[in-house]
Every structure is written in C-alpha cells, then in structure tokens.
C-alpha cells in the first residue's frame, strides 16, 4: 500500500470520538486488507448476459413486455402494431441490445401460430440444443410462455403439446397471461350495459371496480384456473398476468402485473449468481436493484477488510478504504446498469464526485477538498469508523443509483451524460435523504457492532430505508402502481 507523502504517518488526523478504540501506535501501512478479488455474481466469467426465451403467438404482446421489463424501446423489442407473423426459425437468432441493455440475450419465438405444431417442434429443437450446451452462458436461464387473455380458448394444441410433452429440464417457466386489460374492458362494457338496461345511471368509478373484480375472477377461473386444471401445479412453473394498454405506461393490475413477473422470475432461479444477473438485466424494479446493491456492497466490504480470511482489521488505511470504495462502486454499477453510466463512473473525476457526494459537504470542507480527491488524508480509523464510512459508501452509492435509474427511466429520450450525472450527485449530497442515511449510520455503528455482519447489514438496510423516505417525487416512477417501485 503506498504511504509516501501520507500525511497520517506523522500527524494522524484524529477523527475518532472520545472513548473509541483508536490507537496511534498501529502502523496502518503494515496491515494487508486486500482480500482475493471477488467474483461478484459467482458466475463463470463468460456468463454476463441473462438468456431468456419468450414463446407465444404473434400479437400476444411478447415484445411489449420485453420493452417494459428490459428498458429497451418498443422498436428494439420489435413491437408490431400492424404486421404479425415472422419466420419460424427466428428463435435461433439471439437478440442483444448493446448500449440499451448489456445484460440480456433474448430469443423470441416469433412466428408461433395457433394450430401449427411445427412451431412447437422448432422450439423443442431449440430448447434441446440449448440444454445440451456445456457453458452456463449458452444455456437458457428462463422461459416465458405468453398466452393472451383475448383468446377465449387459452389452452390450444400448441399449449397441450408444449406443457405435456416438452422436457425443459431445470429451466424455470413463467406462464404469462397477457392483455388482461381486455378482460377488464369487456367486463366494464358488460356492466355499463347491464346498469343502463336496468335504468341506472352508472357510477363510472364504481363500475371500474366491479369490472376489475369480475375480470380477476374470470381470469382465476378460465385462464389461470384452466391452466392449472389442465397441467397441474408445478414446482418450476409460475403464472403471472399482465395488462399493458398500448396507450398507457403501466400495467392495469394494481397488485401484480409486471412487478410479479419480475419477482417470480427471480424467485424461480436456483443460483444466487443468476438471481443477481437477472436483477441487473431487468430494468423495472428499483427495489430489487437496491436489495442487490446491499448484497454486493456487503460482500465487497467484507472481502475488502478480509473478514473470515484475515482477522478483522481495526485500522484500515485510507488507500485500502479507497480501494474498497472503488470496488463497491464498480459492483453496484453492475447491478443498476444504467446505460452510459458504467463508462462515466470510471472517470476519476466522477468517481471522486460520487465519493464526495456520499458525505456531508461540511465534512469535506473541514477536512479539505484535497482529501476527497485522494482520500489519503483520512488517516487511521477505528473499526467502528471504518465500518461506518464503508456502509455510508454502500448506502450512498445505492441511493444515488436509484435516483439515476429513475432519471433515466422517466426521461428515456435523455441520456445520462457527464453533466446530468454531476448534477444528480450534487442534488444527492444536499438531500435530506442522504443526511438521514448518514445520521443513522453514525448513530448506530460503533466498534461494538462493526464486527458483526448481521448488525452492519441491518443498520445498512435501515439507513437506506431512511434515505428513501426523503426521495423527491421526481425520482419515483411517473405513474405508480403499487406504492413506490
Ligand atoms: N390492450 C393491450 N394491448 C397489448 C398488450 N400487449 C401488447 N399489446 C398490443 O398488441 C400488439 C402486438 O404486441 P407485440 O408486443 O408486438 O406482440 P408480439 O407479436 O407477441 O411481440 C401491439 O399493438 C401492442 O401494443 C396488452 O397487455 N394489452
Ligand atoms: Mg414481437
């Protein structure tokens, strides 16, 4: 660890509170804190994209769902309002989305026609081919099978063939009933007619509610219900319903919908690494990404202080802390995957701005901006302070990314560039949310609990929650379905 010119060697800056376990005789330069480099997602190096197969007849809404879930434009996802039907062998051609979503490989069944069992045969060949691949990166990680609610015969020959005969092995399947809003609309019209025919002036709000409930029960009976009656309940199969009106931004389901699809897909995956990869690939749930930020942040933290392999180090030098910060930033960046961000974040100037943005402006004034440029002036910290600083970095980076995520999602036309990023960082530093997060960690993390993984994690989660409570409106989903995302 470089110590030349390290101001703390001669005159360590004492940031410790009275009674803390700071000892001046510890030579921080001799402490080795680098753990082995961590493999963040616990996946083979080559497996950095989530490979998903989407099956369903033309026009059921496959591309629409992909556009919503993966944050790619309808054009990129191939939403077709006019033409339907594509070549049968389309499934063999992987779609990737450089610049828009780097964690995704999509296989779209394309021309899957009702009654044409040749399509199922082609899909089966494709699934078998993928199953036989030795590398995880080349295997299918999940299948979504889409069935439209606008068909009054949801289970047809193709579905019978697929769910009775095709062996998908351990690949999880989500059956997605699409266009659920059409059931709601049909029930709505029916109810309005019924009320008029009885000479009643319909109360639209009330009719909407009735229609929604009628649609849910029809779905439970004739769609989900029929599926379960025909094929039974299966361990590795989950069922979701989606209704995205073409002119609306969101799902009609007040509970469930895209949220459920994203969550169920994650829950069905068996490996933690794949769950993380899924979390990165999906561009819908900020909640899920925040949770994963805590996971990878903590993992990076403990690895950096060498917990478990070397004894916990009470006095981490500043250079090691900076390395930790850089690792935390890199790992959390991978979880959020906001287009354009990863490259910018690598620039030293931006990196330092993020670092500075996680702490009180007053602290940086007190210690000097120089410190924040290199962090080398931090000097030896007690274990409690080390943990506190690192946890603030994890919480800070995660909360900052949540803001970047919404900024990007709410303004898809605007790329996150250097200026936008710097403004977001400044706003974040000044925000009450960041302050609350920071106060919480200052108050709860001490040398007494800094050694406890569970305690650190619990306070980190609480600090992030506090930070989120103060989030300005512009950083949440424009139209909210289930509370905040
Ligand atoms: N009402 C409604 N229309 C939808 C829904 N999903 C897709 N659509 C519309 O259905 C058409 C076909 O959608 P697309 O995603 O291209 O279907 P794909 O052929 O399965 O990929 C488009 O006009 C979509 O806007 C939905 O949930 N509800
Ligand atoms: Mg399509």
Automatic annotation (TrEMBL):
CDD domains (alphabetical): Ras_like_GTPase (cd00882)
Region Disordered, residue ranges: 1-22
GO molecular function: GTP binding
Pfam families: MMR_HSR1 (PF01926)
Domain G as annotated: residue spans: 51-178
SUPFAM superfamilies in alphabetical order: P-loop containing nucleoside triphosphate hydrolases
Annotated Gene3D superfamilies: P-loop containing nucleotide triphosphate hydrolases
The protein, known as: G domain-containing protein
